[in-house]
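Dear colleagues,

As part of the handover before I leave the project, I'm documenting each prediction I ran so the next person doesn't have to rerun anything. This entry is a single chain, and its sequence is reproduced below.
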Amino acid sequence: MTLVYATYAFGVLTTLTLAGRVSDQVGRRPVLLVALGTLMGATVVFMLADSVG
């Protein structure tokens, strides 16, 4: 379980770094909408997961 959380935290930090650059080029609103959609999708995947594997 710790590995799952560590992977998730590393992914968030990497995404924040990349999204900052993209939002400077594309704009804040489109990047925010994509981020919220991805967050909703990840939440559904976490809810449907039967186990860590």
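The radius of gyration is 13 Å. Helices lie at 2-26, 28-48.

All the best with the project,
I.
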